[in-house]
Every structure is written in structure tokens, then in C-alpha cells.
Write a structure and sequence with these properties.
about 550 residues; binds calcium ion; 5-stranded antiparallel sheet; binds 1-O-alpha-D-glucopyranosyl-D-fructose; 3 domains; 8-stranded parallel sheet; alpha/beta
Length: about 550
């Protein structure tokens, strides 16, 4: 794996949200020592790369995506020594680690911003974006206007996220140099790359209203690559929620931009009313997901690379959203099978491998996420009935995926001996790792095997991708094919029993599945069926 320059195409990435993975010192907050104590678990599952969400110094207005010091570790999570130990141990086990790079904005407690807002002549003033008038009017992604008045200097500063996350002014070359220096400092410590938070936004041009994929994006990425990434064997994944898949393909196929793959949001709007934002709910239709994902596979056919994901710390749990909590394990297995054998690098968000699901807390006070809380108050003020507001939060709130990892059925799910910062999902008596491990047909064993298969066959990296029964609303069945191997992936994304003629694949051999299946003229696919069949050309003659 090491000698191959595109090792990351074949890697399994596992995302850790540090607040909620494992608490080592019983203060109710996940931490770095907690992660270290679970590395063997990750290795055993088949993880190649850990993506660590932010552990930097932060007032935690947005759970660490508001950074007040890029080089210091947040004492909530441990010390710099703990982090070095983590990096060492990850490497000792033959894994890699990428960290979050959050450089569209800082915290309002970052010394740059504190100085910048202290007076107009501050040498850091121009590290941020200031205007006399809040124009053009832009809405913050976390509710309210994106301009906040600062009464010390009588100007407005710009923030696309919370008002405690002022946007950096990327058009300032001095700022850019400081960021590059920081990036190199981390890479020299031995980390293996970055997950680049909202990286498309650094190219924005506010006056012309071009925020995502702005006019300066390629210039800055190119410069960053020259200064930081070039010549290093690392992987970078750019979060780019607002660009088209075609554009993502273009950007990742340009080797001079240092962007190895991107997170695309193309499939994340399918359960919202178009143009109305994430809280305006619409029923999920499996065929929409199938169409979008199929299209992505086709776009990345000609170079560039994609990241495969359904959930992360910003998205609801995938079983609750695209599966079926009443058929938790089967639908969970179906989602893994459907997604992770497509073209792209698989990203598993912590807890998905044991089939964790979302939460429905009764009171808004039980929620901790700033986006959720801001939305709640804005919606109530607008007169939306509370019941309706809570329905949206149940479906889409970010705390759904941020509850503590469920290790076992002891108090607080084995995450801690102290009341956690966010309540444990009450279903932890049933849904937990210890339980799941005991079930040979559970999530863990099934999905572990899936990734072993994925890693063994190069067809998943270099093979064609062809959807069968394109019009079918229930199934997602596809063929991966190169000169050596053909793999047939069969999934039923719904609760209905479906019959399909799969007789042309009679010679294929089943290597994984949540039911036994015979491929013939009338193959019966039970609700949430998932299976994988293979045909090796050489063995056939
Ligand atoms: O998320 C960027 C992003 O686009 C989110 O605003 C996303 O649309 C939203 O969470 C959906 O509800 C990144 C981080 O992943 C997120 O946790 C941060 O809050 C955000 O950037 C600001 O740094
Ligand atoms: Ca702790």
C-alpha cells in the first residue's frame, strides 16, 4: 500500500468526532486518550485512515470548528503530548491520520480577531472582512445575517457561520502565508493530510455574491499546494458543499491543486424542499438517491476522485434517514453495500459500523448544536408550531450523529462514567458494540467483511460502473467490471419484496449477503436485501 501513490483510493477512512468517541478521564467529554484506547478496535475493523474532527483550542461555540489557536490542543481533549502519542500509535499500527483544516474562519477568540477588532489600525484588521454597511445582504448558514456590527470600531464583520466564527480574508497575502506556515507545521509533525473544511469558500468574492467556488479558489489552492503539499505523500479531502459534481471532478483531476478527493453534497438535499433549506422536509425517495449516486459515478469516470459517505457529524444517522429503524440491521447492511462498492473512497462515520440511529429528545434544552438551537429560536419567532420545528430537528438536526458512541449496555453506554456532554441515545441497551459483536449477522461483522472484499479486488478502484434496472424504484443493482473481474452488487432499498430476472449472472458466486440468493429468472429480493456476487475471468476458462 505504501509504494502506491494513490493508496488513498483503496483506503477505508473512519471519522472520529472527538467529543463523543470515548472519555478516558470521566468528565463526560470524549478525549484523545480515549481515542488511543480504541485504536486496536479500529485497526481490527480494517481502518486505514482516521479523520479526526477538530481538537484545537476553541471556545466550542461550534464544537471546535471555531478555532482560537491552530497549534494548541484543546485541554478538553488532552495535551499536545497526547496528540503526538496518538499520531505515533496510529502509525505504529500501520494506519494514517488526517486532521481537520478549518481556514475559512477562526473563532472570535483567536488573537488575530481580538487584535483586529480592538482598533482599525490593527495589523490584523485586514485578516478579516469589514464593511461600513452590512452589504450585500447575505444570510448566515447558521441563521440570521452574515454581517455583525462591532461597536468598538463601528464596522460590520463578515461570518458565513456563527457570529463567533469571523471569516478570514483570503485576499490578504500575509494571512495566506500564516496559514501555509501552520499547515506545514502540522505536516512536519507527521500527520498524513487534511480534511479541508468548507474549502471552496476561501475563493469567495463577496461583492459579486460569488461565495462557493469563487473566482480565487484555484489560485489559492494552487498556491497552497506549492507551499505545503507538493512532494509529500499525503491525502487531502476537500469539503465542497456548494459546487457541482462536474466541477469537483475537474478540481480533483488537476494534480496541481493538492486536492485528492472531495465531499460532494449532491445527495444531501433529497429530503428537503428545493430552495427552502435543510429544515423544510420532503419524503425521501430511494430512486432519487440512486440517480444522483449513479450520476456521480459516471462523472468521475474520467479522472478525479470522490469520497463516498452518507453520514458525518453534520448529517443525520444514515439508517434513520435512508434506511429503516424497524429493520435496523438489514437496512444498515443494505446502505453499506449499496454505497461503498461504488467509485470513490469509503468514509465511515463512527457508530455507523454498529448501526447507530438518530435521537428524538423532548426538549430543545437537551440539544447542544448551535445550528439546531439557532434554527429553533428563529423558527419559533416566525410562528412555526413547536411540534413542527421539533419534527425537523428530529429528522435533520446535527446532534443526531453526535451522541456518544455506544460501546456496551452499561450506564452511559460505556462511553464514560460521568453524565456525557450530550445525552446517550436511549436505545443503547440494544444498540451497542458489545451486542453487535455477538451477532454473526450483525452490522460489524457484515461491514468488516464488505471492506475486506473491497480491498482485495482492484475492480472497485479501476472498474467500470453500470447500473442495471435503471428505472426500478426499489432496487439499486450495479455491475463493477475490469478485465479480470466482474462484481454484481444487489440491493433492495425498500421494505417491499421484489422479483428480478438475474439469470444472466447464474455463473457468479455469492461472496457476501444478508440472505442466501440464487440468481435465476425469478430471483426474490427480500426487504433491504443486500448481496455481492463475483466472477473472476481467469477461473472461468
Ligand atoms: O460544515 C460546512 C457545511 O456546509 C455545514 O454548514 C453544513 O451545511 C451544515 O452543517 C448542515 O447542517 C463544516 C463543518 O463540517 C461543520 O461542522 C461546521 O459547523 C462548519 O463547516 C463551519 O466550520
Ligand atoms: Ca474526557
Amino acid at each position: 500500500m505504501e509504494k502506491n501513490l494513490t493508496w488513498w483510493k483503496n483506503a477505508l477512512v473512519y471519522q472520529i468526532y472527538p467529543l463523543s468517541f470515548k472519555d478516558s478521564n470521566d468528565d463526560g467529554i470524549g478525549d484523545i486518550q480515549g481515542i488511543i484506547s480504541k485504536l486496536e478496535y479500529l485497526k481490527d475493523y480494517g481502518v486505514d485512515v482516521i479523520w479526526l474532527s477538530p481538537v484545537y483550542q476553541s471556545p466550542m461555540d461550534d464544537n471546535g470548528y471555531d478555532i482560537s489557536n491552530y497549534k494548541e490542543v484543546n485541554p478538553l481533549f488532552g495535551t499536545s503530548e497526547d496528540l503526538e502519542l496518538l499520531i505515533q500509535n496510529v502509525h505504529r499500527l500501520g494506519m494514517k491520520i488526517i486532521m481537520d483544516l478549518v481556514v475559512n474562519h477562526t473563532s472570535d477568540m483567536h488573537p488575530w480577531f481580538l487584535d483586529a477588532k480592538s482598533n482599525k489600525n490593527s495589523k490584523y484588521r485586514d485578516y478579516y472582512i469589514w464593511k461600513d454597511k452590512p452589504e450585500p445582504m447575505i444570510h448566515s448558514i447558521f441563521s440570521g445575517p452574515a454581517w455583525t456590527y462591532d461597536n468598538t470600531t463601528n464596522q460590520y464583520y463578515f461570518h458565513l457561520f456563527s457570529k463567533r466564527q469571523p471569516d478570514l480574508n483570503w485576499q490578504n497575502p500575509k494571512l495566506r502565508e500564516e496559514i501555509y506556515e501552520m499547515i506545514n507545521w502540522w505536516l512536519d509533525k507527521g500527520i498524513d493530510g487534511f480534511r479541508m473544511d468548507v474549502i471552496e469558500l476561501i475563493g469567495k468574492d463577496i461583492d459579486s455574491g460569488k461565495l462557493g467556488d469563487g473566482p480565487h479558489l484555484e489560485k489559492y489552492l494552487h498556491e497552497m499546494n506549492e507551499r505545503c503539499f507538493k512532494g509529500r505523500d499525503i491525502m487531502n479531502v476537500g469539503e465542497m458543499g456548494g459546487i457541482s459534481v462536474k466541477r469537483a471532478q475537474e478540481l480533483t483531476s488537476n494534480p496541481n491543486l493538492g486536492l485528492h478527493m472531495t465531499f460532494q453534497f449532491s445527495h444531501l438535499g433529497i429530503d428537503e424542499i428545493e430552495g427552502k433549506g435543510k429544515w423544510a422536509l420532503k419524503d425521501y425517495e430511494p430512486i432519487k438517491l440512486k440517480e444522483i449516486l449513479s450520476n456521480n459515478n459516471n462523472i468521475f469516470k474520467n479522472g478525479g476522485w470522490n469520497a463516498l459517505f452518507l453520514s458525518n457529524h453534520d448529517q443525520p444517522r444514515q439508517i434513520s434517514r435512508f434506511g429503516d429503524e424497524k429493520n435496523r440491521i438489514r437496512s444498515g447492511q443494505m446502505l453499506f453495500t449499496m454505497l461503498y462498492l461504488q467509485r470513490g473512497t469509503p468514509y465511515v462515520y463512527m457508530g455507523e459500523e454498529i448501526g447507530m440511529t438518530g435521537i428524538k429528545f423532548n426538549h430543545i434544552e437537551q440539544y447542544k448544536d448551535i445550528e439546531t438551537i439557532n434554527y429553533y429560536h428563529e423558527a419559533i419567532k416566525k410562528g412555526i408550531p413547536e411540534k413542527e420545528v421539533m419534527q425537523s430537528i428530529y429528522k435533520k438536526g446535527r446532534d443526531n450523529s453526535r451522541t456518544p458512541f455506544q460501546w456496551n449496555d452499561k450506564k452511559y453506554a460505556g462511553f464514560s462514567n460521568h453524565k456525557p456532554w450530550l445525552e446517550v441515545n436511549p436505545n443503547y441497551h440494544e444498540v451497542n458494540l458489545e451486542n453487535d459483536l455477538k451477532n454473526p449477522n450483525g452490522m460489524y461483522h457484515y461491514t468488516k467483511k464488505l471492506f475486506q472484499i473491497r480491498k482485495k479486488l482492484s475492480v472497485f478502484v479501476d472498474g467500470d460502473f453500470e447500473v442495471l434496472f435503471k428505472e426500478c424504484k426499489n432496487t439499486f443493482i450495479y455491475l463493477r467490471k475490469n478485465t479480470k473481474t466482474q462484481v454484481l452488487v444487489i440491493t433492495n432499498m425498500t421494505n417491499s419484496t421484489i422479483t428480478k430476472d438475474l439469470s444472466r449472472f447464474k455463473k457468479f458466486k455469492m461472496i457476501l449477503g444478508n440472505d442466501q440468493l440464487k440468481l435465476n429468472e425469478q430471483t426474490i429480493l427480500n426487504p433491504y436485501h443486500a448481496s455481492v456476487f463475483v466472477k473472476e475471468e481467469e477461473n472461468d476458462n
